[in-house]
Structures are given as structure tokens and as C-alpha cells.
Amino acid sequence: MSTEESLRVVKDGYAALGRGDIQGFLGMLSDDVEWHIPGQGLPLSGTCRGRNQVAQFYQKLAQVAEILAFEPREFMAQAEHVAVIGWERVKIKATNRTIELDWVDTFTVRGGKMAKFRPYTDTQALAAAYASTAKAAG
């Protein structure tokens, strides 16, 4: 897969997410996609395998957080590897806290589909935002 093709696949994925087209986005994933979210003990952390588990991830995301702003700002690619640098503002529903995060998302594209996903962000800041208000007050 060429660098340009890999970049197009990932940009198309972000465009689908930007339109709120989760089903369209899921169709851009390989059948055996590996979707890994770091952050031990966080509500969304762990590894999803396959489109169905990634769909469940997005359902859980909608339950625990409200995405107020999501901006992929730079795309870089080499062959099947794509990195996206961005920023987001998220409201955590359980604590009513809003957090702003810079992030880097990495993808491996195989056969015209996104096959691996790994994000990198400030998991300590996320953990603090998810922490219960009782803990924060104590």
C-alpha cells in the first residue's frame, strides 16, 4: 500500500467521524482490527479486536463522555503507517469535568483498511478528569 493510499484511508476515516458516521467509519476498519487504548483503570482503556468490539467502544464512549471539540491537525504517513496529531475538548459525564488534550493517533493500514490503532495522550490528566468528585473534594 502506498503512502498516499494509507493517508487517504485515515483521512477518510476522520472525515466519517467528523460527520458522525460511525457505521461508515467502522466499514473502513479491517475485519481483524486491533484497537488499543492505553490507560490502566480508565473506562475506555483496553484492547478491542474486530469491528464489533470497536463499535462497542464507541457506544461506551458516548455513555461516558461528550466530545465538545475534536481537531485532527496534522497528518503524516510513511508506507502503511500513519500518524495524526490533534487536539480535543471532552466533557466527562460522571464528573461533569471538561478536559483539553493534545494527542497523537497512530494507524497501520493494510489492504485499504485501518488494521491497527494506538492513541497517545495524557492518561494522567484523563484519570484525574474521570476521578469521582468525592475523591477530588477529599
Can you give a write-up of this model?
The protein has 138 residues and is α+β, with helices and mostly antiparallel strands. It has one domain (3-129): Nuclear Transport Factor 2, Chain: A, CATH 3.10.450. It has 5 helices and 6 strands; from the N terminus they run H-H-E-E-H-E-E-E-E-H-H. A 6-stranded mixed beta sheet has the order 2-1-6-5-4-3. Strand 5 (97-110) and strand 6 (113-121) form a beta hairpin. The protein is globular, with a radius of gyration of 15 Å.
Question: Care to give the gist of this entry?
Answer:
With 138 residues, this protein is an alpha+beta fold. It has helices at residues 3-18, 22-26, 51-64, 123-130, 133-137, and strands at 29-37, 46-49, 65-78, 81-92, 97-110, 113-121.
Global geometry: globular
Could you tell me the number of beta strands?
Answer: 6
**Mean of residue pLDDT?**
93
Please give the largest β-sheet. Answer: 6 strands, mixed
- The rounded distance between the terminal residues' Cα atoms is 53 Å
Please state the CA-atom Rg, rounded to the nearest Å. 15 Å
Derived structural class = alpha+beta
The helix tally amounts to: 5
CATH architecture: Roll
Provide the spatial order of strands within the biggest beta sheet.
Answer: 2-1-6-5-4-3
N-to-C SSE string, H for helix and E for strand = HHEEHEEEEHH
Low-confidence blocks of residues? 133-138
How many discrete domains?
A: 1
